[in-house]
Amino acid sequence: MSRKSLISVRDLSVHFGLRGGGFGKRPVVRAVEGVDMDIAPGSFFGLVGESGSGKTTLGRALLRAVPITRGDLKYDDGEKQYDLAKISKNELKDYRSRAQLIFQDPYAALSPRMTVRDIIAEPLEVMGLTRSREETDERVREIAAKCRLNLEHLRRFPHAFSGGQRQRISIARALVSGPRFVVADESVAALDVSIQADVLNLLKAIQQEMGLTFLFISHDLSVVAHICSQVAVMYLGRLVETAPTRQLFAGPKHPYTRALLSAIPSLDPDDGGKVQKLEGEIPSPTNPPPGCKFQTRCPHATDICRKEEPRLEAGENNHNVACHLWKELMG
Ligand code: SF4
Fold first, then answer.
1. Residue 77 Cα to ligand 1 middle (Å)
2. Index of the ligand 1 atom closest to the CA of residue 255
3. What does pTM read for this prediction?
4. Which of 124, 195, 237, 290 is a plausible cystine mate for 54, CB 3.0–4.6 Å?
């Protein structure tokens, strides 16, 4: 494991059995397959891809909220180290206070029958992290202020708030236990565009102030460009390209990344002639195609693509890609 990593992932796979299919034929969803990834402490790491690419399952696996089928998964914040693939129940309890999730939908995530104070306080009480109501209240007030909520807000119920305010309540709830690692799963996708920038700026400010490490999951590359320092692109359970954000946007190597970027015209206004449209649907993870998983939609696919699966190749400046033909395509 790299000593620079808060989270280190090697050959991680997460498979689920589906119901149905008859005896002996239970379909298997290969949601995550052979993922290698390092997340540096204090970074904002973006994970992008279409719906069905496995991003959410990978995020949940890093939180140990889903069982791991195969691979190594390590956590090291300098104070605590966990082998997450083999973590015990007791260790998992402690890990929960260090690794938290911000939910996608601020409307569904908050109980309508609880006050904002009780919603934010709940993780402290469930994990037994405070010794008195006064201490809990102090922690709640502290994190509410960081999330730009005031004392008056704490007495109200969620229905009294706008989408942006509810997401700030969700963020406060996720951060009240003092985590080091936060998975934000499509955390601004349900918000109006005008509110998105507000919440993104808040996340960035809190991340810097509290020295947090974020895995920021999104289908929207323009949002990732705004906030992340490092990006991994995921397709059908695999990472197909990883790079520092600026490098990925300046010179995407994988045809899938290039197609995703082409869908954001404002980012590359002079590139109208090279726009690559993404045709078709992502295949089912119960029945992935042989060879390169992108071959059914890739306009450049050849025989080798249909036979051999490309591995994620380490490139210069930490820019890695999994494509047999990327050099030819770049040239
Ligand atoms: Fe396309 Fe082949 Fe590269 Fe896959 S390996 S992305 S099919 S060119």
1. 37
2. 6
3. 0.91
4. 237
pLDDT of residue 27: 86
Place of tokens 């995921």: 234
- Is 305 touching ligand 1 by the criterion CB < 6 Å? yes
Residue pLDDT, tens place only, 300-329: 999 999 999 999 999 999 999 999 999 999
Angle between helices 193-210 and 163-175 (to 10 degrees): 20
Q: Which residue has 């206004």 as its token pair?
A: 269
Give the atom of ligand 1 at the shortest distance from the alpha carbon of 299. 1
User: How far does the centroid of ligand 1 lie from the alpha carbon of residue 141, in Å?
Assistant: 52
| Ligand 1 nearest atom to the CA of residue 324, by list position | 5
* pLDDT single digits (tens) 84-100: 999 999 999 999 999 99
Atom 6 of ligand 1 has which residue's CA nearest to it?
323
Does the CB atom of residue 249 touch ligand 1 within 6 A?
no
Query: Closest Cα partner for 245 from 13, 3, 16, 45?
Result: 45
Ligand 1 pocket check for 123: Cβ under 6 Å: no
CATH, domain 7-252, list 3.40.50.720, 3.40.50.2000, 3.20.20.450, 3.40.50.300: 3.40.50.300
Whole-number Å distance between alpha carbons of 323 and 252: 12
Taking the domains of the chain in order of start, what are their residue ranges? 7-252
The DSSP-derived string for 277-329 is ---S-PPPTTSPPSSSTTTTT-TT--HHHHH-PPP-B--GGG-EE--TTHHHH
Q: Does the pLDDT value for residue 259 go beyond 70?
A: yes
Pocket test of ligand 1: the residue of 238, 323, 330 to mutate, having most ligand atoms within 8 Å of its CB, is: 323
Average pLDDT over residues 59-86: 96
- What pLDDT digit, counting tens, does each position of 10-46 carry? 999 999 987 765 556 778 999 999 999 999 999 999 9
